[in-house]
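Let's practice the habit of predicting before peeking. Look at the sequence and jot down your guess about where helices and strands might fall. Then scroll down.
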Amino acid sequence: METPFKPEQDISMEDLAAQLRQPSGAAGKEVAGTMYQSNLGMIRESIAVLSSKPGDALLELGHGNAHHLKEWLQMEPNAQYTGLECSELMQAEAIAYSEQEGLSERCRFLFYDGYKIPFEDNSFDRILTINTLYFWNEPAALLQELYRVLRPEGYSCIAFVDAPTMEQLPFTQYGFTKYDIARFTHLVAQTDFTIDAIHTRDEKVINKIGDPFHRNYYIALLQKK
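Done guessing? Here is the structure:
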């Protein structure tokens, strides 16, 4: 297991928030490692809810260092994966990891601007994004973009920590939009998505400042009909 990052020694809460949004430099690599460790439970639960099928075209928004990818692709040996990032560092880290693990033929990693999904309509069967929702600049427009590139009868899985839990973390006062079920439901209503289900989960983790933490989160499964 990677050593927890201790930003109280190395980085301000405002700078940590910026790194969580868009990792860069040496500190970004450390923060990405901590994100992977603290988010692994959410990742596994979300992949289970998403229920991808053999041969699916998969899209992930905000893949981070992609260290979860080997486990996911082993579950779906015929799936093809595309990752999108607005962090050039994370794109590079993911490419290096996929090459190291022999996954390059099944993966591609692209940089995007956080607004426009750079693919044709109806390109993917399943879409996954975990702990990125807080940073979307135009959430309704980006969610509709995910709808556009999803194939009919496809699913998009969005996992996010609930607002009361987020309020307990000091760095979330800097540039985080917090969501509870009501706010999220209102967001989805502005798009063409249908909510198939919203699953509630809770877990104990080491948070981004290296402390034990209990968090509640949601896994929303949205369908394009």
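How did you do? The radius of gyration is 16 Å.
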